[in-house]
């Protein structure tokens, strides 16, 4: 086992810990909502908001992830399912999206709740996935969901071009076989497109997938509530 985790970056406590910074981020997200709802481009909106509030790069990244237009929020909420809707259904997981977010959460990295109710982190793959200390625990959380929800099958979809995707596929496949779970783990060259076109129910916090999928389930919210997980949470919406 290695000593890697997906915890905080140096400086994250300064950027996301103080109440003053969190209030600034909440205001920035509200401004982004206003601009996006009126048709402004996301990149231009983020630049404008970032300049106004003098945000650092990681703060802007968190604001972009948490923001959405009124139409996007309405669309996403209309397709969100409850756990009771999943019984005997096939659920597709956006593999790296789900796994890395859970690893970050378990590593006590900052997790951000957006306007659409989804949770996101600031980790990135950059073409290579590296297993961390929390990988197995993250997979075990998905296993608990599998058992609790009584879904028919879970299908993990990973990015084939990402280095080590084959290794994580084999690790999860071995775990499923050892624990007698009906899981499939597939590699796709364009997982986002595959999930939108093939999944009736998808688990992801990717904005493009949420905008174009048929239905989705908020697995992270479910696990936080069900397992009473300790989360280093930054709410990016006004209470």
Could you write a compact summary of the structure shown?
The chain is α/β, with parallel strands linked by helices and 239 residues long.
How does this structure look, described?
- The termini are far apart.
- The chain has a single domain (12-235), classed as 3-Layer(aba) Sandwich (Rossmann fold), CATH 3.40.50.
- β5 (153-159), α8 (165-178) and β6 (183-188) form a beta-alpha-beta unit.
- It has 239 residues and is of the alpha/beta class.
- The strands form 3 sheets. Strands 6-5-2-7 form a 4-stranded parallel beta sheet, sandwiched between helices. A 3-stranded mixed beta sheet has the order 4-3-9. A two-stranded parallel ribbon has the order 1-8.
- α3 packs across α4 (57-66) and α6 (95-106) packs across α7 (135-149).
- The protein has helices at residues 12-16, 19-37, 42-53, 57-66, 70-78, 95-106, 135-149, 165-178, 191-198, 207-212, 219-227; strands at 80-81, 90-94, 110-113, 119-120, 153-159, 183-188, 202-203, 216-217, 232-235.
- Helix content is 50%, strand content 14%.
- The mean pLDDT is 95.
- It comes from Chryseobacterium geocarposphaerae.
- InterPro entries: DUF434, DUF5616.
- Residues 24-79 form the DUF434 domain.
- Residues 84-221 form the DUF5616 domain.
Structural class determined from secondary elements: alpha/beta
Globular, elongated, flat, extended or rod-shaped: what is the shape? Answer: globular
Rg (C-alpha, Å): 18 Å
CATH C-level class is: Alpha Beta
Low-confidence stretches: none
Strand order of the largest sheet: 6-5-2-7
Helix content: 40-55%
Count of extended strands: 9
CATH architecture: 3-Layer(aba) Sandwich
| Number of contiguous helices | 11
| CATH fold topology | Rossmann fold
SSE arrangement, N to C: HHHHHEEHEEHEHEHEHEHE
- Major sheet, described briefly? 4 strands, parallel
InterPro entries: DUF434, DUF5616
Region (Disordered): 1-20
Domain DUF434: 24-79
Protein name: DUF434 domain-containing protein
